[in-house]
Amino acid sequence: MAGVAHILIVEDEPTNAELAALICKEEGHSTRQVRDGIEALKRLLEKEHFDLVLLDVLMPRMDGLDLALALREAPATASLPIIAVTGVAGSRDQQVLRSAGVDVVITKPYKPDTLRQALRQALK
């Protein structure tokens, strides 16, 4: 993995967001946390630079699937790497996420090494 990445964590559950941030920071990355897809889009539209978006699939107001679709539609974020975290492990659900433009899907609960591997995969 080359260099430090600035990662946007989109997670409505504070404990999950803090765990993800801790793992990202252990890998040498900086993070910013928001609670839903609407806040994430606002950050991205304000032109704050991110190298990757780590998003929860189930969130209030705007969920991770809708956020991924919105990111892929906007020219400025069309190629931004996306990791989706989901509690649903079915292959059909993962295919829907991948069709929406998600690069890597991991299932909750995950081990720290699973997220580390996903970060390396998405950032290469």
Kindly state the percentage of residues in helix: 40-55%
Would you give the CATH topology? Rossmann fold
Number of strands: 5
Please give the domain count.
1
- Which CATH first-tier class would you pick? Alpha Beta
Strand line-up across the major sheet? 2-1-3-4-5
Query: Separation of termini?
Result: 6 Å
SSE map:
Layout: E1 6-10, H1 14-26, E2 30-34, H2 37-45, E3 52-56, H3 64-73, E4 82-86, H4 91-99, E5 104-107, H5 112-123
Parallel strand pairs: 1-2, 1-3, 3-4, 4-5
Helix pairs in contact: 2-3
Report a brief summary of the structure.
With 124 residues, the protein is of the alpha/beta class. It is 43% helix and 19% strand.
Describe the overall structure.
By secondary structure, the chain is α/β, with parallel strands linked by helices. It has a single domain, classed as 3-Layer(aba) Sandwich (Rossmann fold), CATH 3.40.50. Helix content is 43%, strand content 19%. The protein has five helices and five strands. The longest helix is centred in the first third of the chain and has 13 residues, at 14-26.
List keywords for this structure.
single chain; alpha/beta; Rossmann fold; five-stranded parallel β-sheet
